[in-house]
């Protein structure tokens, strides 16, 4: 697989010039396995897994899915943490549910790709190889149950999105990840948001909040 070696991926962490193009699901999975070992040396041990491309809409856009990828210890951050947009290929903010030690939390995922491209320029096999876009996860308050309306609030207090929790989607994603050990990032509950404005974003469900500051 031309350009898929772990050494090239390691260089691409800063240069954002990876050009891996797996020819099959099996090839992409093998690349991810190899990249994971290299990524441990940068981000620490694997503490769990994320799901991506779990909706029919995203699968049509990227050509397949769902896919999973590892989460690393130094990339799981506390509530209110800061993430730098200039480190990202195509800044995207995702309001998600995080499961760890049998407890549910609100969370923000800030994914990244090492190709240096917009997400729309990639296919599902490229994403799978590149750790399913794994990067930062900001974990917020715990929640007792996934019921009610969630909101994504922007830096100026404006409500960017509001919708009822899709419990069916979360349950389905939980089943897909159940055989994998560790914490689980269970997928978006609000449509992923292309970041155009810096500042603090808030994800709310009832009295619980997750906050992240993007600069």
Descriptive account of the structure:
The strands form two sheets. Strands 1, 2, 3, 5, 6, 7, 10 and 11 form an eight-stranded mixed β-sheet that branches. A five-stranded mixed β-sheet has the order 4-13-12-8-9, with no helix packed on it. It contains five helices and 13 strands. It has one domain (6-214): Fumarylacetoacetate hydrolase, domain 2 (Alpha-Beta Complex). Helix 1 (6-15) crosses helix 2. The mean pLDDT is 96. The protein is an alpha+beta fold and 215 residues long. A hairpin with a 5-residue loop joins strand 8 (149-153) and strand 9.
Number of contiguous helices: 5
Can you tell me the overall shape? globular
Which structural class should the secondary elements be placed in? alpha+beta
Provide the residue-averaged pLDDT. Answer: 96
Q: What's the helix-strand series? A: HHEHEEEEEHEEEHEEEE
What's the Cα radius of gyration?
16 Å
Q: What is the CATH C-level name? A: Alpha Beta
Structural descriptors:
215 residues, alpha+beta, Fumarylacetoacetate hydrolase, domain 2, 8-stranded mixed beta sheet, 5-stranded mixed beta sheet, 13 strands, 35% strand, globular
Task: Give the SSE map.
Blueprint: H1 6-15, H2 25-43, E1 46-52, H3 56-62, E2 67-72, E3 76-77, E4 82-83, E5 92-100, E6 103-110, H4 124-129, E7 136-143, E8 149-153, E9 159-164, H5 167-177, E10 183-188, E11 193-194, E12 199-205, E13 208-214
Parallel strand pairs: 1-10, 3-7, 4-13
Antiparallel strand pairs: 1-2, 5-6, 5-10, 5-11, 6-7, 8-9, 8-12, 12-13
């Amino acid at each position: 697989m031309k350009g898929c070696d772990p050494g090239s991926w390691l260089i691409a962490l800063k240069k954002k010039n990876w050009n891996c193009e797996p020819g099959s699901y099996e090839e992409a999975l093998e690349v991810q396995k190899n990249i994971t070992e290299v990524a441990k040396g940068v981000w620490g041990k694997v503490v769990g897994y994320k799901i991506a491309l779990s909706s029919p809409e995203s699968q049509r856009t990227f050509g397949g899915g769902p896919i999973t990828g590892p989460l690393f210890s130094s990339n799981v951050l506390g509530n209110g943490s800061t993430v730098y947009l200039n480190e990202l290929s195509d800044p995207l903010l995702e309001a998600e549910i995080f499961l760890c030690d049998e407890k549910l939390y609100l969370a923000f995922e800030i994914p990244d790709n090492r190709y240096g491209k917009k997400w729309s320029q990639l296919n599902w096999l490229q994403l799978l190889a590149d750790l399913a876009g794994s990067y930062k996860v900001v974990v917020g308050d715990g929640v007792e149950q996934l019921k009610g309306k969630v909101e994504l609030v922007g830096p100026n207090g404006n409500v960017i999105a509001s919708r009822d929790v899709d419990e069916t989607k979360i349950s389905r994603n939980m089943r897909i990840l159940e055989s994998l050990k560790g914490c689980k990032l269970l997928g978006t509950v609000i449509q992923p948001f292309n970041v155009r404005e810096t500042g603090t974003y808030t994800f709310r469900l009832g009295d619980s909040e997750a906050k992240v500051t993007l600069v």
